[in-house]
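## tool: complex_structure
## caller: assistant
## args:
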Amino acid sequence: MASVKGIGGRLYSGETSFNIVGNAKRWYIISLIFTAISIGTLAISGLHLGIEFKGGSAYTFTSTTATVEQARSAVAGSGISGEVIVQKVGNDKIRVQTGSLAPAQSDAVEAALTSTFGVQVSDIDTQIIGPSWGKEITKKALYGLSAFLIVILIFLAMTFEPKMAVAAIVAVVHDVLITVGIYALVGFDVTPATVIGFLTILGYSLYDTVVVFDKVRENTRSITSSSKQTFTQATNLAVNQTLVRSINTTVIALLPVAAILFIGGALLGAGTLKDIALALFIGMFVGAYSSIFIAPPVLAYLREREPAMIALAKRVNGRGAPAVISTPAPVDLAQRRGPRNQPKRKGRK
Amino acid sequence: MSTPTKPTKKTGRPLRSLSILALLVIALASAAFVQGATAVRLGLDLRGGTSVTLQPRIAAGENGRVTNEAIDQAVSIIRQRVNSLGVAESEVTAQGSGTNRQIVIAVPGNTGRRVVELVGQTAELRFRQVLASGPGTTSVGSGASVATGSGASVATGSGAGVDTGSTATPVNGISAAINAKYEALDCTKLENLQGTGTDAPTETIAVCDRNGSTKYILAPAEVLGRQISKASAGLDTQAGSAWYVSLTFNGEGTTAFGALTTRVTSLPEPLNQVAIVLDGLVVSSPRINEPIPSGTAQITGSFTQLEAQDLANVLKYGALPLSFDRGEVAQVSPTLGADQLDAGLLAGIIGLTLVVLYSFLYYRGLGIVVTGSLTAAALVIYLLVLLLGENIGFTLTLAGIAGIIVAVGITADSFVVYFERIRDEIREGRSLRSAVESGWIKARHTILVADAVSIIAAALLYIFAVGGVQGFAFALGLTTLVDLLIVFIFTKPLMTLLARMDFFATGHRFSGLSQKSSGVNRQTSTVEA
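## result:
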C-alpha cells in the first residue's frame, strides 16, 4: 500500500510520469480496433434482445424438484407453438420463456405448469410483453441518449470550454459503443434494465472525465504566460496527477456494483439487479479507460491546433533560447525553419 | 499547530455546519414520526403484485393526435375500472413525458391477476335516452312486476309511466330481463362501477352513474362520441357566473342529435333526459329543453368550474377515444418480492462494507470520515425515502435500490476527490490545516461539476423513463443531491475538526495523511506551521 501511495506523490510532482497524452496514437489505435470489432459484431450478429424488446411471455416458479426437461415437456403439452426457452434460475427456480401468446394460450401455459408441478397460479411470476413494447422503449432510450448528449455538451461547454465538451462526448460515445459491442460479442441479454445501465454509464464516464478535465484546466489556466510546458505536456501532467484519484474512484464505484452483480447473479439469477450491474460493471471499466486514455489526448489534439498553443509549443520546444524575450524568438525560429512560410504565419497572428 | 486556535472565518465554522445537519436529521425524523411514516413504501416487485403498463394510442380507424387531456381522461377511466376491484393501494398513474406517456397500473397482492383483462379495452362515449332512473341501491319490495310487453317502440315512450320516486317501478316497453337486471342492480357495489362490458351500443341497458348514487335504464345509443367535433367548458358571466359546457357535433352527429332531441324534448321526466355514457357509466344526464337541430348544444346546470371542465374533457375524450396497447404485464408473487428485497438489501450491505474496507485500507484514519459521511448520507436518504413515500407516493423498487447502491460509489467518489486534493496541497508544502481549506476550494468545484453531470443524467433518465426505470433515476438523483449536502455540511467540517487533532495534523502513520502517503520528503514541512 505504502508504495502505491509513494507513486501518488511522485506522479504529482512529475518525478514519475507516464506519457499518456504523448502516446495518443497508440490508444487511438487500440480504441479504433475495439470500436471496429464492436460495430462489426453489432452489424453481423446484433444484440441478444430480451423478451422486453421482442415481445413474449416469461413464467418463473419455484420448485426444488422440477427439471428443465419436465418443464419443457409440460409447456409443449399445453399446445403452444413457437420457440420456448426453459432455464434454471438460481438454485430452485425455473423460468419458461415463450413468444407472444394470446391470453388463452398464456392461461394454458400456467395451467400446464400448475398441474405438472403442483404450484399455485399465484406463485407463478409472469411477465407478458406486448409486441410493440420494444419499439416504444427503444425510441425512448434513443431520445434519452440524444437529449443527454446535447444537454451535457452545452453544460460542459459552459462550465469548462467547448473543446473539453467535445472531447468528453467523444469519450462517452466511445464507451457506449464498446460496451454495447461487448454485449453483442458475448451475447448477454439486453433488457430495459441493461438500457438503464447503458444510460447511467454516460453519467459515470463523464464524471470520471470531469475530474481529469478539472485538473487539466487548473494546470493550463495561465499556460501561455510561461514557456515551461506545451498544452500536451500540461495535460499529461494533469492525467498523471489525477491517476491515483481516477483509479480510486473507479475501484470505489465498482465495489458496490460488483456486490449487486454478485448478489443479483448468484441469489436471484436473472433480473433487474444483475442486468443493471453487468452493464455498469463493463461500462465503468471502459469509462475509466476513456477518461484517461481517450478524452485528454483528444482535448490536447484539439487545443494544440490553436495558434496560441502552436506558438507556445514552439517556445517550449525551442527552449534554451531565452524564453523571456518572447516576441522575437518565434520569428527567428520560423525564419530558420522555413522562410517561405513566414509571411503567412505573420498574417495568421 | 500545537495549540488549537479559535476557528477563523476561513474554516467556515465546522461546528455550526454539523449542528445544521443534526437539526436537519432531527427535523426529518420528527416529520416522519408526526406523519406516521414508519415503513418505506415498497414497490410491487418487492412485495408482490401485478403491474400493467399500457401505451395509449388513437383507436384504429381514427385520425388525430393523442392529447394530454385524453391521457388524463384515460387514466381516470382506468382508475375507475381498477378501483372496482376494491384492492387497497391500487395505483393508476401516467408516466413519462408529454403525449408519449404510458399508463402504469399497479395492484398489490394476488387479486391483481384480474386487472389485466380489465384495463386493455377502449372506452367509448355514447349518448342514450334515459328510460328510467332511480337511486343506486337495490329496490326492495317494488314487486318487480313484469313489463306489459306492449311491443311499443321504446323511443316513442308512449304511456311509459315512470316513477322517479324512491323505488323504481318497472318500465313499460322494456324487456323483463332488463327490468329484472335494473331492479337487482346495486350501484353501491364496487363491481357494478367497473363500467366495461355492460355497454353494447345497440342494446337497452341497465347501468349506474360514475359515483354509484343513481341507476338508469338507457335506450340504445343514438349519438356516438366520435360524432362530437368540439367540446369546451365556459363561464357565462351574464347569468350569474354559471359554468356550462358547450358542445359541437359533426355532420352525422348534428342529424342524429337533432333527431334525438326533437323526439325526447316533449316527453315526461325522465324520458326527456339524455345520458352521456362513458365506458358504460353515466357521467351526466341533462334534460333536453328544446330540439337542437343546429349541432351546437350547451349543457348548463349548477356546475363548479371543475365539474364543467371534467365533463368537457369527457366529451373531448369521447370524440377521439384511445385504445391501449398492452406494453408489459409483470406479476410478482409475494415470495419472489421478499427474495428480491432481501437480495437488494444484502447487495447494499456488501457494497457499503467493501467501500468502507477499501477506504480504511487506502486512506487509513480518513476511513473514519468516509464511514461517518456514508452513515450520515444513509440516514438522510432513509428518512427522505420514508417521507417521500408518505407525501408524494414514492415507492422503492428493486431498480431504486440498485440506484441507491450505485450512488454509494458516487458519494464515496466525492470523498476520494477531496482527500486526493488535500494530499496534493500537502505535496505543495502546505500544513494539513491549510491543505484542508485550500484543497476544499479546489475539490468543491470538481465535486459540484461532477455531481451536476450525475444529476442531469438522473433527470433525463427520469423524463425518458419507462416503468421501473423511473425508480432508478429518482433514487440516483436523490442520493446525488444528498451526497452534495453531506460533503458540504458534514465531510468538510469534519475534516476541519480532524485537522486540529494531533493524530492527523502531525501526519501519523495511520492517519492517511503521513508524509509517506503524500509523497513528501521534507520532514519539517508539516511541523513549521
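## assistant note: The domain at 14-49+134-304 of chain A is CATH 1.20.1640.10 (Multidrug efflux transporter AcrB transmembrane fold). The two ends of chain A are 51 Å apart (CA to CA). Handing back to user.
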